[in-house]
Specification:
By secondary structure, the chain is of the alpha/beta class. Among the domains are: 363-475, no CATH class; 478-604, no CATH class. It contains 17 helices and 27 strands. The protein has a 25-stranded mixed beta sheet that branches. Helix 9 packs parallel to helix 10, helix 10 runs parallel beside helix 11 and helix 13 (341-351) packs parallel to helix 14. One of its GO terms (cellular component) is SCF ubiquitin ligase complex. InterPro entries: LRR_dom_sf (IPR032675). This is F-box domain-containing protein. It comes from Mucor saturninus.
Length: 604
């Protein structure tokens, strides 16, 4: 008896929506149910493709040449690969439905025709934005379909070339400019050419002064208060990342407040260097008040604000009072000027009417002092009663592996669901007492609501996972990225994530390192062996990363910091559980695990 094959008349969009909620493993299972399901769920696996490194790109490009999978690709991300002109020109044919292209390097020695890119709407990149530069030089490009465009200027002439062609992009909604100097007339020209622009992102940008004397700067503020700068109706997001000159040319803040009074998200990050922090000359009290008034004007005029990121920006309580006065209620805020003044800003946040859900804090050197750290964490716990996400970064503090007690933060933020530590040594102050008698239970801290934990570019001891196992029963997502283990004794080489009662949705581990001979005086070698045991399935799995390729990290912004050379795996080997292999391990013990990513590779 032959069972008839099931057929479905539903649109593929329905299966795409279903696939959005499935993991890679679940999509693979659905593809193997029957021939009908294979044809329905195959597109979802190739809809968004991310490539890292030349080896992965060669495999993907070879698959495009020998099969039809390219017709399913809508979003293609190519990271750390220099694409040749020939490969780039064939992509429209191999991926005819490509809508979103992300890349960080193209061989520009040859001219490239973009006449076939009829569906392309998003052109953005990681790091060096050279694909867009080629697109600008293409005489047959009309820009008619583009809604997102990112440009990195390799020469001053590129800016004039962009502005001469920008009127072609009449439907542009998002524009990102990297490494550029802009004047007031430049910004006005951008908005005159792109009247539908909703997001403007300026990276490594310098703003030319609108005025020079104090009187002229005040006149800019007066003009802004009378709305002499015609506001843009569509602009919702402004990001000024690692920008220079905003501290001295603070009259631009008045311009932003008047021009973009419909902003929902504002990101201002003034350029900062540990060796030469700005300002070089301390301002007077009157000069500080002028800057305070300029930043407060944004709180007065931009009444739709929900997300504010103010890093290394001079401000005081006037900004919070202005937002409270006009009824602004923020959902997210980022603070930090790399000095103790950040404590004052946290106190202002506590006293204000703002009740944020998400907080990003950029630390400063004196946070290494225990009393200062405890005061900061206490203020964080008081700043909101609905705080569910914290990003804590010491990246620009000049201090490596600054100790921050994770248990102290969780005890002060009872509703916290997500926590990210960046350039921090995660430590535990809570005594690891596992007794169950009444006295011991009485002294135990309350259980945390934490669900998602991220360690990045930092360090920890295995004791941290012992604490998480007991006091964070809801933890389902764990990420460890470029982190090192600190062992009390050098023989303690293994990272032991021993959480036997936890059911994880996802664990991601990339660049995990064991202790070096002399603390952290030199870069340790990545751990390549992973031992995973799941109690629910009574299953032990052993993975070994291999086929490493060298690569150099690229910074998204200019900073006095050297890029670091790494090596990353392009494959892994699955061994039998009883295989005897020596070397440091990342040992994971849990109740169940849905997805495991090691070295950016999907293992489970």
């Amino acid at each position: 008896m032959i069972t008839p094959q099931l057929t479905y008349n539903y649109p593929l969009e329905i299966f795409d929506n279903v696939s959005y909620y499935l993991t890679h493993k679940q999509k693979g299972i659905c593809r193997n149910v029957c021939k009908s399901w294979r044809s329905l769920f195959t597109p979802s696996q190739y809809r968004h493709v991310q490539i890292r490194g030349r080896r992965q790109f060669q495999r993907f490009y070879g698959a495009l040449m020998t099969s039809m999978v390219g017709h399913y690709v809508r979003r293609l991300s190519i990271d750390d690969v220099c694409i040749t002109a020939e490969e780039l020109e064939t992509l429209p044919t191999l991926c005819p439905n490509l809508v979103h292209l992300l890349s960080n390097g193209v061989d520009t020695s040859q001219d490239i025709s973009f006449s076939q890119w009829s569906h392309l709407r998003y052109l953005t990149e990681y790091g060096h934005l050279t694909v867009a530069n080629q697109l600008l030089r293409s005489p047959d490009s009309t820009f008619s379909s583009l809604t997102n465009l990112s440009i990195r200027f390799s020469s001053p002439n590129m800016k004039h070339e962009l502005f001469d062609n920008l009127h072609k992009a009449s439907d542009l909604e998002c524009l990102s400019l990297d490494t550029v100097t802009l004047s007031l007339s430049d910004l006005e020209m951008i908005h005159d050419s792109c009247r539908s622009l909703q997001k403007l992102r300026l990276i490594n940008a310098d703003l030319e002064p609108i005025s020079f004397t104090l009187k002229e700067k005040r006149n800019v503020g007066a003009a802004a208060s009378h709305h002499l700068y015609k506001p843009t109706k569509c602009m919702k997001i402004l990001e000024f990342q690692n920008g220079g000159s905003l501290y001295d040319n603070y009259e631009w803040l008045y311009y932003f407040a008047s021009k973009y009074n419909g902003l929902v998200s504002l990101h201002l990050w003034c350029r900062y260097s540990v060796s030469t922090p700005s300002p070089k000359v301390p301002p007077t009290v009157s000069e500080l008040e002028e800057r305070y008034a300029a930043i407060a004007s944004i709180g007065v005029n931009c009444r739709s604000l929900k997300y504010v990121n103010l890093i290394n920006v001079t401000m005081n309580h006037w900004f919070f009072e202005a937002m409270d006065h006009v009824g602004i209620s923020l959902d997210s805020i980022a603070l930090g000027d790399m000095t103790d003044r950040t404590l004052d800003m946290l106190q202002c946040l506590v006293r204000s009417k703002q009740n944020v859900c998400s907080l990003t804090l950029w630390g400063w050197p004196s946070l290494c002092i225990q009393e200062t750290m405890q005061e900061a964490v206490t203020l964080i716990g008081m700043c909101s009663d609905r705080l569910y996400s914290i990003d804590f970064s010491m990246q620009f503090s000049g201090i490596k592996n600054a100790p921050i007690p994770i248990d102290f933060i969780l005890s002060h933020c009872s509703k916290l669901k997500r926590l990210k530590f960046d350039n921090i040594q995660a430590v535990v102050m809570t005594p690891m007492n596992t007794k169950t008698d009444d006295d011991a239970c009485y002294n135990m801290p309350a259980k945390s609501s934490l669900e998602h934990l991220i360690f990045k570019n930092g360090s920890f001891r295995n004791q941290v996972f012992d604490y998480l196992s007991i006091y964070c029963p809801n933890l389902t997502n764990l990420e460890v990225n470029s982190c090192s283990l600190i062992g009390q004794h050098y023989p303690e080489m293994d990272i032991k994530i021993h959480m036997p009662h936890h059911t994880f949705q996802s664990i991601r581990i990339d660049h995990a390192r064991s202790p070096s001979h002399y603390y952290h005086a030199k870069q340790a070698i990545d751990i390549r062996l992973f031992n995973v045991y799941q109690y629910k399935k009574n299953k032990r799995q052993l993975f070994e990363l291999n086929d490493y390729e060298p690569y150099t990290t690229s910074l998204d912004f200019e900073y006095e910091q050297r890029t670091v050379e790494y090596s990353r795996p392009t494959n892994y080997i699955g061994h039998h559980a009883d295989t005897q292999i020596s070397g440091p391990f990342v040992s994971i013990t849990c109740q169940d695990l849905a997805e495991l990513h090691i070295g950016t590779l999907w293992a489970i």
